Amino acid sequence: MKHYSLLLTTLLLAFASCQPTTTAEDTEEWKAEIMAVEKAFNDMAQEEGLAKAFEFYAAENGAIRRGKKVIKGKKEIGTWYENDSQPNETLTWEPTFVDVSSSGDMAYTYGDYVFTYFDTEGLKKENKGIFHTVWKRQADGSWRFVWD
Q1: Could you give the CA distance from residue 104 to residue 98 in angstroms, rounded to a whole number?
Q2: Of the candidates 31, 29, 54, which has an alpha carbon nearest to the alpha carbon of residue 42?
Q3: Residues 81-115 pLDDT 10s
Q4: Quick check: 133 and 143 in contact, CB under 8 A?
């Protein structure tokens, strides 16, 4: 029985020492990474257009829901925006919340967005709402969205 207790204690200590430990500093660093990616994503959308930004920041298997349709895949997302976007449309957003998994490989954000467009009479219109994005760290260390 004594050997059994010693073996069990040794195994538990070995198992516990193998578990990664995430510090508050790690979590804050990952949250800062996501906030920087969100800003770069928004900036790219303003500078290069929605199609390029959404295709660039989508994971290969990323998906977006627009209306009643789910568009799956990086290229398909870019194509959807190329075909759906109209001249002078803008989409701006800013996350108000971010959280990251304890392993640092998944995250999600939500916040406010403003979609601006011109109607058929040339009048400027704005739709405001709340967005939600799920991010996944890629093998190269970059963050790409898997759901938007």
Answers
A1: 12
A2: 54
A3: 999 888 889 999 999 999 999 999 999 999 999 99
A4: no
